[in-house]
Hints:
Layout: H1 2-9, H2 16-19, H3 21-25, H4 27-32, E1 33-41, E2 44-51, H5 55-60, H6 63-74, E3 79-86, H7 118-136
Parallel strand pairs: 2-3
Antiparallel strand pairs: 1-2
Amino acid sequence: MVGNFAFARAGFSDPALVLRWEEIAGPETARLARPIRFSQGPSGGVLTLKAESGAALFLQHETRSLCERINTYLGRPAVARLRFVQGPLAARATPPFPAPPPGSIPKADPVLRYKGPERLKTALQNLARARRSRTNMGG
């Protein structure tokens, strides 16, 4: 509930704009800027973004398309304009990968022959282990 108060204090009645910023703005824009405040102005909503130094000028050229993406995501014309504040962005914490489920993979399982990207290979192996654990439990 403390988080909801912090969002409301910054003007975000719906925290989805902040929590799903990378999905809404795209990974490249999200790397350069983050929403810090939302307020209602005389001509509509104003979203304040904190941007890396030098990125604000670049992002001002993308204002129209960024506002369209935000409003499309929200399902209403909430953001009429963007305001930029320059400053360093804190590094985003990357969530740790979950521990692989217990269980062994049979030697005949095709996942052991997979030669693609390592992250996908690990995910496929985890899925094979989980499948194996479930079948061993009688499910």
